[in-house]
Design a protein that fits this description.
By secondary structure, the chain is mainly alpha-helical. It contains 15 helices and no strands. It is globular.
Length: 379
């Protein structure tokens, strides 16, 4: 961690990159499966892994957000004896909103125009049928997405090509609204109890101890993963020396990776319980990854950069899939070679996604990040 200028944890960008590309892989295989092409969904050996890979990537993002935001809020409160809500919310707005609304415009305007202008896009039946379904583009759906409630829209079955992945951004935004209030209101002595209570409450709701209204809310905003990360953020802020001492072990790092590999590929418990177990192991991986004294933890300048633009990678990749799949379908139809098709998909989609994300980050997002960091710095 570099504390001279601002709080920065090495190793987290690499995890962000891995999480983002996990989501891309899941969506590629899901698209192939829905369009009745050979997919990892078809094999009993890979079906569980690929079916839940995207959600696992998102849960890693959630745990990471819970850890980092909680640590930053606690550090600000400790230093200034208060949380500057205005600066906190404006920092989130300047980082999240510009790209979010670019995706909103692409999904609700550009993609429908392209589908109605070029017959090429009718080749991909699953995308095409979604875009021409006018019922999904009603005023209510537009407002839900415009008001940062895509998770509510998706829960209601409103799948918007190019934008539905933003459901997790909606969850993050709702988390950003609530968490500063919690950290500000409760003292450090009991804040860990509060995070634990949030986690237990969501677990009880998911175990059907409450009625369906609470179950619906818990499904829309799965805050239990943020709560797991927040517990880590609290304990790291209080006992960083102790945690650093025990997370520098090679054995713990290898054990964490093996456990993650096992639980993302083998169903052992009910899915919800297994996801919670993975959430805690993700937290352990985060604590290990930020430990500069662990000789094995993953540091790579290319993955670090990809993690730095991972918000764009996560948000743009469905649009790239929309653009490229019809082209590769034509190539497949011409050459009838599924191997070449898959090579093209797995090179073309990540490559173009990274390129667009780079352009977006360099020429659009950075402008807002500079404003965020210059005018609304809190630590």
């Amino acid at each position: 961690m570099d504390s001279k200028k601002h709080i920065f944890f090495g190793g987290l960008n690499e995890l962000r990159a891995i999480a983002a590309f996990s989501v891309i892989m899941h969506h590629i295989e899901l698209f192939k499966y829905r369009d009745k092409l050979a997919s990892l969904f078809d094999s009993k050996y890979t079906a569980y892994f690929i079916e839940h890979l995207g959600k696992n990537g998102v849960h890693l993002f959630f745990v990471l957000s819970g850890f980092l935001i909680t640590y930053l809020l606690l550090s600000e409160k400790k230093k200034n004896n208060r949380i500057d809500f205005k600066k906190f919310y404006l920092r989130r707005i300047f980082r999240i909103w510009p790209l979010y609304y670019i995706i909103f415009l692409i999904s609700f305007i550009l993609i429908p125009i392209l589908v109605n202008s070029f017959t090429l896009f009718s080749n991909t039946s699953s995308y095409y049928s979604l875009v021409i379904s006018l019922s999904d583009y009603d005023l209510k759906t537009i407002l839900l997405y415009a008001l940062f409630l895509p998770n509510v829209a998706l829960h209601q079955g409103k799948v918007i090509v190019g934008a539905s992945q933003s459901w997790s951004v909606g969850v993050e935004e709702q988390f950003y609204i609530i968490w500063p209030l919690i950290v500000s209101f409760f003292s450090r002595k009991i804040i860990a109890v509060v995070f634990g209570a949030i986690l237990i409450t969501f677990m009880m709701i998911n175990f059907k101890f409450y009625n369906s209204i609470f179950s619906t809310i818990a499904a829309i905003i799965p805050f239990e993963y943020m709560a797991i990360g927040s517990l880590g953020g609290y304990f790291y802020s209080e006992y960083s020396d102790f945690i650093t001492k025990y997370t520098k072990s090679r054995f713990i790092y290898i054990a964490a990776l093996l456990l993650i590999g096992f639980f993302i590929t083998v169903p052992v418990f009910k899915l919800y319980i297994q996801n919670l177990i993975l959430g805690f192991i993700f937290l352990l991986l985060i604590l290990i990854s930020i430990n500069q004294y662990n000789p094995l933890n993953f540091r790579n300048k290319y993955f670090s950069y990809l993690g730095n633009i991972s918000y764009g990678i996560y948000m743009y990749h469905p649009f790239v899939m929309f653009l490229l799949f019809p082209i590769f379908y034509k190539i497949l139809a011409f050459y009838n070679n599924i191997f070449a098709f898959n090579i093209g998909i797995y090179i073309g989609i990540p490559a173009l996604t990274v390129f667009i994300s780079y352009i977006s980050f360099t020429y659009i997002e950075k402008r807002f990040i500079k404003i965020k960091d210059s005018k609304f710095k809190t630590l």
